[in-house]
Amino acid sequence: MNKPQPHAGPVPGPGIAPGEQGRPDLRRRAWMGLFARAERGQLEAFLKREASDVAVHPVRGPETGLVMVRGRIGGGGAPFNLGEATMSRASIRLEDGTIGHGQLLGSDRAHARLAAILDALGQTAAFTARVAALTQEIEARLTADDEGRAEETAATRVDFFTMVRGED
Amino acid sequence: MYVAVKGGETAIAEAHRLLADRRRGPRDLPALSLAQIAGQLSLAVDRVMAEASLYDPILAALAVKQARGDMIEAIFLLRAYRTTLPRLAISQPLETAAMQIERRVSATYKDLPGGQLLGPTFDYTHRLLDPDLAGEEAEPETPARRAVSGEKVMRVSDILDGEGLVEGDGSFGPDHVAGDITREPLDFPMPRDTRLQVLARGDEGFLLALAYSTQRGYGRTHPFVGEIRIGLADVEIELPELGFSVPLGRIRITECQMVNQFKGSAKEPPQFTRGYGLVFGQSERKAMAMSLVDRALRADEFGEDIVAPAQDQEFVLSHADNVQATGFVEHLKLPHYVDFQAELDLVRRMRAEYEAKRAGQAGDEDAITSEAAQ
Question: Which GO biological-process labels does this protein carry (chain B) (predicted)?
Fold first, then answer.
């Protein structure tokens, strides 16, 4: 039988550099989220164009596994286990020792590896600006998608009107 | 005596070959792609993900295709695949209040912040078969767009909560650890968090029937749909190597907040109670049924008499899983030759004894009759 796992995130794999711990790096958190939701082709094209000569060493994965997705009772109460989702993750190291992590929903391991490379490149001075530009592109497209979906939903909003009845 | 029977390998291989042929169907028609199934039979895919308890639209589409559209078979396939994967993480609880809304309706408030957003619903369709879909389908119209109001789509439970007229979301003590039925066997009585996990993967038909039974009087709960919302929610995990949480992407979920019969006591002021439903994908029938059954299963919390099936934890939660259910029901068709031979033997012996006894009795009766005649 499987040993129950503690209720925390993934176990650090081999070669994960200590000392990376810190307060939330909001910029990095944001781009990780964007790489996760980007089209794989867009990441692939960027890396081919901008970083084809960069040496990348695998640290962990890429691998596919499960994430137990939790909800909250009543929407905001105690957590409960809703069900699992597939997720893929990868960690890589650049020549200079920079570690990058990629993780996303689904079974696309290649996508996770590309996200990890971009996460590492984003932390290096040589690539910061270019990676930032890429994240802006991704964000613009995702935002446009979200806005489109929101506007389509808004068009189905019910406008109530009151019919006056009776004599008064 | 135990007799092992061998044989049938060739028949099984040929049966599977025939299955593959029939699954493919007529060869003059193009094969379905997974993208077609995920894109055009998306609610079937959603159901498979919900009841397999594994969110992955592409794998669920593959399961639907492989199962020839047999939903429970597809659910079984995806559930089985799940067991081959290691668990890498546990997510932060989904923030359903912050999801990107695709549909949101309330039956308790007409005008509420964020409005009634119908979204892509079957409601108000006339349920007439559409011959236009039968042949070469014309492209449907592009959906209309309208500027977004920017108003926060407030949760109905929060609106009621503002007045203190509804119970809270549902909490446990600080030491409580959320149960996980994928790691621990079912144990009764089961706390509400674990019950919700069972219900979230439970068979839609079974939960629908139980929910319906509560409406018909078998454990009535006087429900109102406070709110149904369908949308996309971020899944985030904590990365211990970084010390903060990161988004993995989004999943589509359906949430139902049922507002039920109020309760009051010497300690608690009268207030509405609640049932909760949360399901993978777009599936409001399931989410509604789940919330009704969740509320019915809270009978002991509110001191209600447990008189109906939907209120009986052990009955509901032991029979909600259609993979387990189909396994046990369908195993009956597998060879039971030896068991049956034993039973047959027994019945023959009992029959022989019965006949012998009857013959004996008939003999006695004959004797009595002839005595009486004399």
Answer: organic phosphonate metabolic process
